[in-house]
Write a structure and sequence with these properties.
Strand order of the largest sheet of chain A: 1-2
Order of helices and strands of chain A: HHHHHEHHHHEHHHH
Radius of gyration of chain B: 22 Å
Structural class of chain B: alpha/beta
Structural class of chain A: mainly alpha
Largest sheet of chain A: 2 strands, antiparallel
Shape of chain A: globular
Distance between the termini of chain B: 76 Å
Strand order of the largest sheet of chain B: 7-6-8-9-10-13-14
Number of strands of chain A: 2
Order of helices and strands of chain B: HEHEHEHEHEHEHEHEHEHEHHHEEEE
Largest interface: A-B, 39 and 35 residues
Oligomer: heterodimer
Number of helices of chain B: 13
Chain lengths: 307, 382
């Protein structure tokens, strides 16, 4: 029983990271109806930005309490990646806005490869060790279960960011504009919404979330490299589809489901007869099943294509 | 019109350049002043320190030979290609070295999976290849041109199994990297010997190179209460495994093979890896004059203590040089025969005699990690 609970916890923490990345995918899709495949790479850039910011500000961060230094690193890195996200949209996607959607999709794959290999050129292909910003210790009083302080902080930050995102989308004027744009871009611009600003903002917000995800992921698994975003990016994409792409609570739910399923498969591989090395495959089997039986996702609305 | 002229001009310039370049290449290999030796190393990527160390060791040996006047009246030239620790890339760059650079012999790789890609290419081209540190038995089984200067995994697996039993560890869990031939082989050989001699395997879990989360596997392993965990993969994943094991409250030591030997292991894992054991090719604590001299020279040059990959890289180049000297030629068949005849060569990693299977029979040392440094525990002979 303890073992099962522990596995659930492991899955929950892993899933919260997937959820955070999935939010970025789903938000951009919700507004623009296209998958930004470079999202996982912005996630990687977030982790590297965190590494360098931590290094550059080491004298300052040394005197701050760790909570505050985490916040500083997190916010600065989110700002850097938001700027990068806006830049990528401006340079790569904006010129293609009125082209067929497939063009943008292929461009996104190109952007993803470009970021990965530029990062390899700049940072080197050797995995780097990520600094311990959060002091490691186990949360006491849980009996046989173990949770580290890092995991608690990661889950807390992820939840706070999700709630913050929900607030921005549902309660602010920009959020209203985003929703209007996602319903009907032409009508939105007729109502005085500046589409370009809203789209830039969406990209900035999504990239900031990815950066936060990158730092949290690197805090849990402190070894970062230019290709670290590929797998989590793909899984977060599956999570977004599972929850219903374009749906924000759906992405969070999808992330948690993928994280828990993957962990349970790896943890009970001997009992169910699937080698634990196949854990990555599980996410993609789920993707295929969802596409077969409920293409709109768990919380997604069925949309009819208008002819 | 103008544009066409420009095109023609640049095209002819390119052709001339290509001709000049290929002219250079054609004279390679059989050049009158240089002997070209190819090296494939993982200078970047997941096992970057392997390639960097073995390259540093290899280059040091080549430099020493050149400083002493070279071989057959020529200087040696090492042409190194980085395979980025990627499966698939090693074969590509090995092909390039063989067909374009026309090297006379090949040194590398450290990882068995990547050596297994290079071996058929060298075998087919009739070029001898010496792997410094690939321990999977299949590597040299590829053909009669493939050699290695290290021990092999059946032996290494036995060493760790023997060691575990001698320490009273009767129940061991195994965590294997299913994407690496090395890890799969080592785990299998460990298991065979361990079970045949009264040990019990409590759990067998696997992961794939590049994974970051091992908590699911470790939680399952923890339930079986093992006395130790064999983490037979490479250092990158092992350091994260050690960290996560400690986070989950697993206090038993980890066991591993020579794939752990990298400064990055201690750097990433920190305290989590303290008290764990792994088998290796040599110990820098060894007081034999040969090792002392090597460590001193290496430190003077690289300002770091050499690891086993550096020592093996050094030995692999010296054995090749010794064979070229004895063969008196760089022709493939004669060179192969000379390497095969290597006997009692006094290497840094021990006395090297290549057996009929083209493997080196050498004792292994068991090291532990203490205060962030390797500490010698015992030597186990074949």
């Amino acid at each position: 029983m303890d073992q099962f609970l522990q596995q659930l916890l492991n899955g929950l923490f892993l899933g919260s990271i997937y959820a955070l990345i999935a939010l970025g995918y789903t938000m951009v899709y919700g507004v623009l109806r296209f998958i930004n495949f470079a999202h996982g790479d912005v996630f990687m850039l977030g982790a590297f930005a965190g590494l360098y910011i931590n290094k550059a500000l080491a004298p300052l961060l040394g005197v701050l309490p760790w909570g505050l230094s985490l916040l500083v690193v997190l916010l600065l890195s989110m700002a850097v990646c938001a700027a990068l996200g806006i830049l990528v949209e401006y340079l790569a996607y904006r010129p293609l806005r009125h082209r067929p959607r497939l063009n943008v999709l292929i461009t996104a794959i190109g952007v993803s490869l470009f970021i990965e290999y530029t990062a390899q050129y700049l940072f080197g292909a050797t995995p780097r060790s990520f600094p311990e910003i959060i002091p490691p210790h186990n949360v006491p009083g849980l009996g046989a279960l173990t949770i580290t302080s890092t995991q608690v902080i990661v889950l807390g930050t992820a939840l706070a960011l999700m709630v913050g995102l929900r607030f921005i989308v549902m309660k602010t004027r920009l959020g209203l504009a985003m929703r209007a744009l996602s319903l009907n871009p032409t009508a939105a611009s007729l109502m005085g919404v500046n589409n370009s600003v809203v789209i830039s903002f969406t990209f900035g917000l999504g990239s900031a979330l990815a950066a936060a995800g990158g730092i949290l992921y690197a805090s849990l698994y402190p070894s970062i490299d230019p290709f670290m975003g590929v797998m989590p990016g793909l899984k977060a994409f599956v999570a977004a589809v599972l929850g219903g792409i374009g749906n924000i609570p759906g992405a969070a739910l999808g992330g948690l489901i993928i994280g828990v399923t993957e962990t349970l498969v790896a943890g009970y591989s001997q009992d169910i007869g699937i080698p634990s090395g196949y854990r990555d495959g599980v996410a993609f089997v789920i993707l295929i099943l969802i596409l077969l039986f409920k293409p709109s996702g768990l919380l997604g609305k069925v949309e009819r294509e208008k002819v | 019109m103008k544009r066409q002229l420009f095109l023609t001009a640049s095209l002819s310039l390119l052709t001339a350049l290509a001709a000049a370049l290929s002219g250079c290449k054609d004279s390679g290999g059989g050049s009158t002043t240089e002997i070209l030796i190819g090296e494939v190393a993982s200078l970047s990527g997941g096992t970057a320190t392997f390639g960097q160390s073995s390259h540093a060791g290899t280059q040091m040996a080549i430099d020493e030979i050149n400083a002493a006047g070279g071989l057959l009246g020529k200087q040696l030239k090492l042409i190194t290609e980085d395979d980025q620790s990627k499966q698939g890339e090693a074969g590509t760059v090995a092909k390039k070295l063989v067909s374009r650079e026309k090297v006379v012999a090949m040194l590398g790789e450290v990882a068995s999976g990547r050596s297994l890609e290079m071996a058929p290419i060298c075998q087919k081209a009739g070029i001898p290849m010496i792997s410094p540190a690939s321990t999977n038995p299949d590597v040299t089984a590829t053909g009669d041109h493939i050699f290695r200067v290290c021990f092999i995994d059946p032996f290494q697996g036995k060493v760790m199994a023997k060691f575990a039993l001698s320490k009273g560890m009767k129940n061991v869990a195994i965590l294997v990297d299913s994407k690496q031939d090395y890890s799969v082989g080592l785990s299998g050989f460990f298991k065979d010997y361990f079970k045949a001699n009264g040990g019990t395997i409590t759990a067998e879990q696997s992961y794939g190179s590049g994974d970051k989360d091992f908590k699911a596997q470790l939680t399952a392993i923890k339930a079986g209460n093992p006395d130790a965990i064999l983490a037979s993969g490479y250092y990158g994943e092992t350091s994260l495994i050690a960290k996560q094991a400690r986070e989950l409250g697993i206090t038993v030591p980890l066991l591993g093979g020579d794939g752990w030997d990298s400064p990055a292991l201690v750097e990433v894992a920190g305290k989590a890896i303290e008290g764990s054991f792994f088998s290796n090719h040599f110990s820098t604590e060894d007081k034999s004059p040969r090792i002392l001299e090597f460590v001193k020279k290496y430190q003077a040059k690289h300002n770091a203590v050499p690891d086993a990959m550096a020592a093996l890289g050094y030995d692999s180049a010296l054995i090749l040089a010794d064979a070229i000297k004895r063969a008196g030629t760089t022709e493939g068949k004669a060179l192969r025969d000379a390497i095969a005849a290597t006997k009692d060569f006094d290497g840094v990693t021990g006395r090297i005699t290549l057996d009929e299977k083209r493997n080196a029979n050498k004792p292994a040392v068991v090291l532990t990690i203490k205060d962030g440094k390797y500490s010698y525990v015992t030597t186990i002979a074949p």
